[in-house]
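PROTEIN DESIGN WORKSHEET
SECTION A - STRUCTURE
LENGTH: 307
TOKENS:
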């Protein structure tokens, strides 16, 4: 019998959990798992009964990654459903469960039961005296040649912040692996317009890839907020009057008109509030901007997460 691809990621740092999740997604995609479906346990429309429909495959479906972000501890009944889901997961499904913000997870009964079916991926806290080794190992994973002195400079520049250090390392990788001309071309392919268009097109993987690239560009947060608000505002205009003139390439116009027909007025108001909150929190330095922007994009592409 084929070994199931089930991973249970947990630890004290959500950024490190995100890194590990991205690594596992990349690994599964190399193994032929082409599609990915993301579920948030706190989403108003989510239920474990709904998740159960994902456990079985069929002869004609491609391999798929089920990406479950477990943000609250399941009830006894839901924990049993999740255990059954893991037990009966078909071979053409890979499951990544990221446990976020749940205290004392190792003591939970449902967690212990899930370990019978999954690989335990515990992400340890990175202490100050471990950051240099962590960056060294990360540079090896990125195939980036970097000296100890350069690592010390990154840690000093970022004041030891793991996310900022990671972004600095990815920027070094980008500059190392591309000529100046290629780098300019790549930037032009990952600008805010392409983010908007990929979101409107419903291409989740491409949108998250572009967002991840924008993280490396200093000061791009305000541009992301502007781009998200612009598209929601234009959709709002189209809802009021479908003949509203929108300027842009033909594929962009087709995509935004199609999206305006799919979103309800209530959902449009919801996204306006979420983007306004994103702007306020960014200006005040509260919360994780990129995590919240990612959540908005996922919900915008997959509005079934909303009521």
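SECTION B - SEQUENCE
RESIDUE ASSIGNMENT:
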């Amino acid at each position: 019998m084929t070994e199931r691809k089930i991973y249970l990621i947990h630890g004290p740092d959500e950024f490190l959990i995100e890194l590990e999740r991205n690594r596992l997604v990349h690994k599964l995609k190399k193994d032929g798992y082409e599609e990915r479906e993301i579920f948030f346990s706190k989403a108003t429309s989510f239920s474990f009964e709904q998740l159960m429909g994902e456990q079985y495959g069929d002869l004609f479906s491609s391999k798929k990654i089920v990406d479950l972000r477990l943000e609250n501890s399941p009830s006894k009944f839901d924990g049993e459903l999740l255990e059954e889901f893991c037990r009966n997961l078909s071979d053409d499904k890979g499951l990544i469960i990221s446990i976020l913000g749940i205290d004392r997870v190792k003591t939970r009964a449902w967690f212990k039961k899930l370990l019978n079916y999954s690989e335990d991926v515990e992400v340890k806290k990175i202490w100050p005296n471990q950051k240099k080794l962590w960056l060294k190992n990360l540079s090896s994973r990125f195939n980036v040649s970097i000296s100890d002195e350069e690592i010390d400079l990154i840690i000093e520049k970022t004041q030891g912040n793991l996310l900022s250090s990671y972004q600095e390392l990815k920027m070094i990788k980008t500059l190392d692996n591309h000529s100046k001309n290629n780098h300019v071309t790549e930037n032009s392919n990952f600008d805010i317009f392409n983010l908007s268009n990929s979101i409107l097109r419903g291409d989740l993987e491409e949108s998250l890839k572009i967002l991840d690239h924008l993280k490396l560009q200093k000061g791009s947060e305000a541009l992301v907020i502007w781009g998200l608000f612009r598209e929601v505002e234009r959709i709002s205009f189209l809802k009021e009057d479908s003949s509203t003139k929108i300027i842009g390439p033909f594929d962009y116009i087709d995509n935004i008109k199609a999206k305006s027909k799919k979103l309800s007025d209530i959902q449009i108001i919801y996204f306006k509030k979420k983007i306004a909150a994103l702007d306020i929190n960014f200006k005040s330095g509260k919360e994780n901007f990129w995590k919240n922007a990612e959540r908005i994009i996922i919900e915008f592409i997959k509005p079934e997460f909303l009521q």
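SECTION C - NOTES
Residues 178-190 have pLDDT under 50 and may be disordered.
Strands lie at 5-10, 35-40, 64-70, 93-99, 119-122.
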